[in-house]
Design a protein that fits this description.
The complex is a heterodimer of chains A (384) and B (197). Chain A has 384 residues and is of the alpha+beta class. Chain A folds into two domains: 32-65; 78-382, Beta Barrel (Catalase HpII,  Chain A, domain 1), CATH 2.40.180.10. In chain A, 33% of the residues lie in helices and 21% in strands. Chain A contains ten helices and ten strands. In chain A, strands 1, 2, 3, 4, 5, 6, 7, 8, 9 and 10 form a ten-stranded antiparallel beta sheet that branches. The radius of gyration of chain A is 28 Å and the shape is globular. Chain B has 197 residues and is mainly alpha-helical. Chain B has one domain (13-196): Fumarate Reductase Cytochrome B subunit (Up-down Bundle), CATH 1.20.950. Helix content of chain B is 68%, strand content 4%. Chain B has six helices and two strands, in the order ααααββαα. Chain B has a two-stranded antiparallel sheet. Chain B is elongated, with a radius of gyration of 20 Å. Chain B starts with a helix and ends with a helix. Classes of the chains: A alpha+beta (384), B mainly alpha (197). Chains A and B meet through helix 1, helix 2, helix 3, helix 4 and helix 9 of A and helix 2, helix 3, helix 5 and helix 6 of B.
Chain lengths: 384, 197
């Protein structure tokens, strides 16, 4: 029993009836000018700390801090603002299919998606950059986003591209490279001086570009290998954790990695059109390959490849059975946030992962709140 | 209302013990949640970590808010202090209703917003909640805007609430904060009465 409690109750019961109008008098007794000023100061002090604290936390008092909003702003600065479209990988096509797990992934991961069986997939094929109506070119980065709909509402989302390593190791590097590679209005090409200055400061990007240029992109989406690039931690049912990078490797293409030869008169959307036409004839398949890193393999730097000799597990087959023009309710409305992971997979120490998740969320919120326009890629216009 | 106003405040009558405990359990959760939310959306590196706290903390706040609402309906409030004018009492009453509404609606908005965007509502490991809104990006957009607006309103109401209590306690010295105290407090009135007499 608190002493205060007791006396309060006692006071309530004993004093109330007898007292008349004590408050003003008792207040006067307690008030002094000095005390009131100190009290006012405390109130003002609290309000100031409270408001300044929230403003600082929200980045409003730190104009130089790189926030997800400022990252999204940079995409808009470089590519222009295109209402309703992703800030990056704006041009795309929705797809659906399934992942048939062969059970081999269970050895390193307890996620239910790796149990033998099949789960539904939503996918999205895309081209890098913030222009939703850019013309298809063979060397533009190609993307494949996947959402595995596991049992019990668990999801696994990944956004992969067709480069073997990523061009930047840090969000800051990516942010700077975006500006350095902004095409000049007169030439349509990046400012050579700015790009050279950027590369001087970022040797990791130079090294990554060298690796990327060793192999030319394949002919189209159908025969592209897509890489998750960032490392993740996989934990199996025994609790053992290993670093993993994943890729999806095309199956059933007669000669993989056919050098890119665009058609003699390539249509504006020829990469997507080919994908749509091929899929009208047969489903498209990729093998999901999990590559296991060894101690010393970088998990925090997506510009650095792991040695070719690393053990890998073929976990099953991804089949895309249909594609759809982007519209309400399909892959258009999905944020392929790389940190939506099932139990059994967690993010590594790669700084790109947190930044991707944060910026994708900002891009998703912006485009959700904007009016939507039809996608450049339209299945009905390709298939008669 | 008028009865309350005329009641003497010889000793500061307190809120029910359950109300006081709920108040002080929830206060740090709500303040932390506001700051986590604001830091989270402005951070490239802490976003996932803070989001992983924000979701279960929001659900905990929702659960506490529901318990608190039930507690509010089953307990009587202590009378207002005589130092509060009728206008101030009205503001205090309505801001209390507003806080209750926001503490319930804000977590629900967050939950519904993630549902509309098809996100899994992960709490901890494999533990997650079902969706409570149609999967629709326009619904997401609306709820997302509401979530920011409610957060701003909650922050303003919280700030006004603390400023008012501090003003009463430190400037008017009417021991207003003792009504919500879970710590021992001095018997207020007898001393004040002594100085008066």
């Amino acid at each position: 029993m608190e002493p205060g409690d007791h006396s309060d109750h006692a006071g309530e019961q004993d004093d109330k009836p007898s007292e008349t109008k004590p408050t003003q008098f008792s207040l006067r007794g307690a008030l002094t000018r000095r005390g009131a000023l100190l009290g006012l100061g405390a109130v003002a002090g609290f309000a100031a700390v409270d408001v300044a604290g929230i403003a600082y936390a929200g980045g409003w008092l730190r104009p130089d801090a790189l926030t997800p909003s400022r990252f999204a702003d940079r995409f808009e600065h470089v590519y222009g603002r295109h209402d309703g479209f992703r800030r990056n990988h704006a041009k795309g096509l929705s797809g659906t299919g399934s992942f048939a797990s062969n059970g081999a992934g269970v050895a390193i991961c307890r996620a239910s998606v790796f149990q033998p069986g099949s789960v539904a997939l939503i996918g999205r094929f895309s081209l890098g950059g913030g222009l939703p109506d850019q013309a298809d070119k063979p060397d533009t980065v190609r993307g494949l986003g996947l959402l595995f709909q596991g049992p019990n509402g668990q999801q696994w989302r990944t956004a992969m591209i067709n480069l073997p390593v990523f061009t930047d190791s840090t969000p800051q590097g990516f942010y700077e490279r975006l500006l350095a590679s902004k095409p000049l209005p007169d030439t349509g090409r990046p400012d050579q001086e700015k790009m050279a200055a950027f590369l001087d400061r970022h040797p990791e990007t130079v090294a990554a570009m060298k690796i990327i240029k060793q192999s030319s992109p394949s002919a189209g989406f159908v025969d592209s290998t897509f890489h998750g690039l960032n490392a993740f931690w996989f934990t199996n049912s025994a609790g053992a954790t290993v670093p993993v990078r994943w890729s999806v490797i095309p199956q059933g293409t007669h000669s993989p990695d056919i050098p890119a030869v665009p058609p003699s008169s390539p249509g504006k959307d020829y990469l997507f059109d080919d994908l749509i036409r091929t899929l009208a004839q047969r489903p498209l398949q990729w093998r999901l390959v999990l590559t296991i890193g060894e101690p010393g393999d970088p998990t925090n730097d997506a510009t650095k490849p792991w040695p070719q000799s690393r053990r890998s597990i073929d976990a099953g087959t991804i089949t895309i059975t249909a594609v759809q023009t982007e519209e309400a309710g399909n892959a258009r409305d999905i944020n392929f946030d790389p940190l939506v992971l099932p139990d059994g997979i967690t993010a590594s120490d790669d700084p790109l992962l947190a930044a991707r998740s944060a910026v994708y969320a900002r891009s998703f919120t912006r485009r959700a709140e904007e009016p939507k326009s039809p996608s450049e890629v339209n299945v009905r216009q390709v298939l008669p | 209302m008028t009865d309350d106003a005329d009641k003497p405040t010889a000793a500061v009558a307190r809120f029910a013990l359950s109300s006081r405990i709920l108040h002080w359990l929830m206060a740090p959760m709500v303040i932390a949640q506001l700051f986590i939310g604001v830091i989270m959306v402005a951070s490239l590196s802490y976003y996932p970590m803070l989001l992983a706290i924000h979701r279960p903390l929001g659900v905990a706040i929702l659960a506490f808010a529901a318990v608190r609402l039930a507690n509010r309906f089953t307990h009587r409030l202590p009378p207002f202090l005589a130092t509060m004018s009728p206008a101030e009492r009205r503001i205090a009453t309505w801001s209390e209703y507003l806080l209750y509404a926001l503490l319930l609606v804000q977590p629900l908005t967050g939950w519904a917003m993630l549902s509309a965007a098809r996100f899994p509502i992960t709490l901890l490991g494999p533990l997650h909640l079902p969706g409570i809104a149609p999967r629709d990006i326009d619904v997401y957009a609306l709820l997302r805007e509401c979530h920011s607006a409610f957060a701003f309103l909650l922050f303003l109401t919280f700030t006004a609430h603390v400023c008012a209590v501090l003003f009463h306690t430190l400037v008017l010295r009417d021991r207003l904060v003792d009504r919500m105290a879970v710590w021992p407090t001095k018997p207020a009135s007898p001393q004040q009465n002594e100085t008066k007499v």
